[in-house]
Amino acid sequence: MKRDPPPNDKGKSKALKPKMIEDEHYPLHKRWCIEYADIMGGTKYELLPWHKVNHEINLINDNKRYHYYLPHCPHSLREEFHKKINWYMDTGWWEPRSVSQATLMLCIQKKDGHLQTVINVHQQNNNTVKDVTPLPDQEIIREDIA
């Protein structure tokens, strides 16, 4: 992998040499792919099983309706946007539904030019009862356990 040289005040640049040659890189990569297959296996096409959750989110107003807007996406990124939506649906992460309200989704262009979809949940967050209970002091817990 070739990297661009860092900017130099004197106008001179030195090319960075990779520390590992290709012959050393491939066996290491192969070993890691086998050893960490559970996290390096690519996209999982099934959702994790549902578990019973012992918490709830308390709402200020249970009957509040949220305003829904269609996703805003620049014309130059529409093709990538539709590819991303189709990918979400093919993997089973999303499924088409008819609903009376939904969460706002924004399309933001990353620095590298790719598309990032962002879910805007400000309206839902503003309708939740804030939990002001402080977290326990981790140092005291460690001392008690020790």
Helix content: 25-40%
**Biggest sheet overview:** 2 strands, antiparallel
Structural class determined from secondary elements: alpha+beta
Portion in beta strands: 5-15%
Give average pLDDT, whole number: 76
How would you describe the oligomerization state of the chains in this entry?
single chain
Run of helices and strands: HHHEEHH
Uncertain parts: 5-15
Our count of helices gives: 5
- Give Rg in angstroms: 24 Å
Total strands: the figure is 2
Strand order of the largest sheet: 1-2
What would you call the shape? extended
Distance between the termini: 46 Å
Kindly describe this structure.
By secondary structure, the chain is of the alpha+beta class. The protein has a domain at 75-126. It has 5 helices and 2 strands; from the N terminus they run αααββαα. A two-stranded antiparallel sheet has the order 1-2. A hairpin with a 5-residue loop joins β1 and β2.
